[in-house]
Design brief:
The complex is a heterodimer.
Chain A lengths: L1 H19 L1 H4 L3 H4 L5 H26 L4 E7 L2 E6 L1 E6 L5 E5 L2 H4 L4 E2 L2 E4 L2 E4 L8 E3 L4 H26 L8 H21 L7 H17 L14 H17 L3 H8 L6 H47 L6 H45 L5 H4 L1
Antiparallel strand pairs in A: 1-2, 3-4, 3-8, 5-6, 6-7
Helix pairs in contact in A: 1-4, 1-11, 4-11, 6-8, 7-12, 8-12, 9-11, 9-12, 11-12
Chain B lengths: L14 H136 L4 H16 L1
The chains are: A mainly alpha, B mainly alpha.
């Protein structure tokens, strides 16, 4: 988490340097206006700073969830996929259900006391989101469903080819996925869980592929900047599932080690037991933060580098600056995207691996517990 | 730089999204995970096991084959040795038989010769005896005829004749 924040701060500073440095900001003054006076320079400086604030906000909006899927803007036409909004008012318990596109036709853009602000539904009066429950199919839910459908088709096709070509060599998609699945079974599941691995196999494989598809979808450009797995809610939901699977399968030994570590003096337990109990929550919490931090960090990096084009192009005022920004951004972007592709696999792997390790530790039978401690 | 955006919202879990993620993941787990990924994993492991078995069986068959070949070679070698031995024995037997026959023939011949010699000797003795007898008969007859004329004349003659006869008999 710390690393991610650091990355975020660094990038924000990195992009800011371009804006604040007057020399850089004015590289295109000759091509643009000609002579620039000192007072004009200070005005331009303020404008750039404001634009910069806009860019940071744009980036943060891009990585946040939204109640509509905004794909892009062509001139004045917004390409937006409307998504269903399901809103429950906390006080009146009134359930509102409508498509997000309805806001654009509603009088003053207000429906049932809600309005849309930066693609997000807010209370029309307070402008905040704490007066209602938002169970809408949001951008992230929508993208998750795309991933879900893709994986469902893929794996049922593969399953049917395994049934059709039983005992034969794999073919097509089957042979593409087989090494991955085989690797997951051998190096994650069996290695950490042991001979009773079959019970946990569907869960662990599901976790891996569910995270992976959302990570990979997040790398596809022009789909409305998908950031499902870089959202803390997404990682929290998965971490909660892991928490339940780990602890509901915990053996007596596992709980015994948490509540009363064998071979430890009684008074030490007063300190040790709370730490162990905290560990039960912390393990999945770390999973949650690691995945969230890595993916959102990657997305902010990519968006920041893309923003170079807008910053150096001074928001469309300078084509030369935009071209220079593009020239600078393109190789970095290529590198960062390749890195993100690796991270997409790595984080899915790490999440699954650690879940398997925790499950393995929870179901392990300690035969010689007294000797060890 | 003042941000209107509430950066803390990025770190605050959203109830709706947690809810939908959980639902979608659980559905994914129970439908795709249990109905597709599980069977796929089982199929992969089953095939892996069957391939391993087949490879092991092939390896075993190969070892058996080479063992069999070695056995065959051994058998062939033994048979060859056996036949050589039999041939040698037959040759020995042949030689000894021939040698035997040779010796026996030699002995037989020697015996026959010896027998023939003995026979000849006896025959010769017999013939000599007969000749002697004939001769003595003749002599006696001749002597008788002579003596019949002279015997009466002298006793000395008689004595002399007797000694003659004695001599002949001794011969």
């Amino acid at each position: 988490m710390f690393r991610t924040q650091l990355k975020y701060i660094f990038l924000a500073l990195f992009s800011l340097t371009f804006a604040i440095n007057p020399a850089l900001a004015n590289t295109d003054t000759v091509a643009n206006e000609g002579i620039m006076l000192i007072n004009e320079k200070s005005i331009a400086h303020e404008e750039v700073e404001k634009e910069e604030t806009d860019i940071v906000e744009t980036i943060l909006h891009h990585v946040s969830d939204a109640n509509e899927n905004h794909l892009g803007t062509m001139g004045h036409t917004h390409l937006t996929i409307p998504l269903p909004c399901i809103l429950i008012n906390k006080e009146t318990k009134k359930v509102s259900f409508f498509m997000s596109s309805a806001f654009h036709h509603a009088p003053e853009g207000i429906i049932d006391g809600y309005k849309m602000e930066h693609s997000r539904v807010v209370d029309a009066q307070t402008g905040k989101r704490d007066t209602f429950y938002d169970l809408s199919i949001t951008k992230n839910v929508f993208n998750m469903l795309i991933g879900f459908v893709l994986l469902t088709i893929l794996f049922f096709v593969i399953k049917s080819s395994y049934e059709k070509r039983k005992g034969q060599a794999p073919k097509g998609a089957q042979s593409f996925m087989e090494p991955i699945i085989d690797f997951l079974i051998d190096d994650i599941v069996v290695k950490n869980i042991g001979p009773n691995y079959k019970k946990y196999l569907p869960f662990l494989l599901s976790v891996f592929f569910f995270i992976l598809i959302n990570n990979l979808l997040g790398l596809v450009p022009f789909l409305g900047s998908i950031n499902s797995s870089g959202n803390i809610s997404f990682t929290m939901a998965l971490a909660l599932c892991s928490l339940l699977v780990i602890n509901l399968n915990g053996t007596k030994d596992y709980w015994g080690h948490i509540f009363a570590m064998p071979g430890v003096p009684k008074w030490v337990l007063i300190i040790l037991t709370p730490i162990e109990l905290l560990g039960v929550i912390l393990k999945p919490a770390v999973l949650m933060l690691r995945l969230f931090g890595n993916i959102i960090g990657g997305h902010i990096t990519v968006l920041s580098i893309v923003s170079l084009i807008f910053i150096m192009g001074k928001m469309g005022q300078s084509m030369g600056g935009a071209a220079a920004g593009g020239a600078v951004a393109f190789p970095i972007l290529l590198f960062v995207n390749a890195l993100e592709l690796f991270v997409a696999f790595l984080q899915a792997y790490v999440f699954t691996l650690l879940t398997a390790v925790f499950i393995g530790a929870a179901i392990e039978e300690h035969h010689h517990a007294e000797e060890h401690h | 730089m003042l941000l209107k955006f509430d950066t803390l919202s990025l770190l605050t879990p959203d109830l709706g999204l947690v809810f939908w993620t959980t639902i979608i993941f659980l559905v994914f787990w129970f439908i795709v995970g249990k109905k597709a990924l599980g069977p796929i994993a089982n199929a992969i492991k089953d095939r892996e096991a069957s391939i391993n078995d087949a490879l092991n069986a092939a390896e075993k068959a190969k070892a058996e084959m080479s063992q069999l070949q070695a056995d065959n070679a051994n058998l062939l070698k033994e048979a060859r040795e056996e036949s050589a031995k039999i041939l040698k024995e037959a040759k020995d037997i042949k030689e000894s038989v021939i040698a035997d026959a040779h010796n026996r023939a030699k002995d037989e011949a020697a015996k026959i010769i010896a027998d023939a010699k003995a026979e000849i000797d006896t025959q010769k003795k017999k013939a000599l005896e007969e000749v002697k007898n004939e001769l003595s008969q003749f002599s006696v007859e001749i002597a008788e005829k002579i003596l019949n004329r002279e015997l009466s004349t002298s006793k000395d003659h008689q004595q002399y004749i007797n000694s003659l006869v004695e001599n002949i008999n001794n011969n």
